Amino acid sequence: MRLLERLKQLEGQYMFIKWVGGCEYAKLISAAVDFYEFNIIDIDTMDYKETIMIRPNLLMEVTYGGADVQRVLAEMCCHISSNSEN
């Protein structure tokens, strides 16, 4: 299965990405032939700090499971629920 096909299935999911510009926790917004769009998560505040578009040849690694990604997802959920109570 090609990376694009797999990423299309993972749209809307949280993941850890490594790309030429660095490595970040992110939420995949969309995957297209010419770019992948991610919302980058600021680990300190658990808010989205920016949206980036990465060309497919610059994306080096995608981790969409595992303990670290699950921890970030849990912290994002806690942050969202505490903000909605205020």
List the helices and strands and how they pair.
Blueprint: H1 3-9, E1 14-19, E2 22-31, E3 36-42, E4 47-54, E5 59-63, H2 67-85
Antiparallel strand pairs: 1-2, 1-5, 2-3, 3-4
Structure overview:
It contains two helices and five strands. By secondary structure, the protein is of the alpha+beta class. It has a single domain (about 5-85), classed as SH3 type barrels. The chain has a five-stranded antiparallel β-sheet.
Short overview:
The protein has a single domain (3-85), classed as Roll (SH3 type barrels). It has helices at residues 3-9, 67-85, and strands at 14-19, 22-31, 36-42, 47-54, 59-63.
Radius of gyration: 13 Å
Please give the alpha-carbon distance between the first and last residues.
Answer: 44 Å
Q: Give the class from helix and strand content and strand pairing.
A: alpha+beta
What proportion strand?
35-45%
Taking pLDDT < 50 over at least 5 consecutive residues as the criterion, the unreliable ranges are none
Sheet with the most strands? Answer: 5 strands, antiparallel
Query: Looking at CATH, which topology would you report?
Result: SH3 type barrels
- Helical residue percent? 25-40%
Overall 3D form? elongated
The ordered string of helix (H) and strand (E) elements is HEEEEEH
CATH class value: Mainly Beta
Oligomer: single chain
Counting structural domains, the number is 1
Q: Mean pLDDT score, rounded?
A: 87
Strand order of the largest sheet: 4-3-2-1-5
**Number of DSSP E strands:** 5
Counting DSSP H or I runs of 4 or more residues, the number of helices is 2
CATH architecture, by name, is Roll
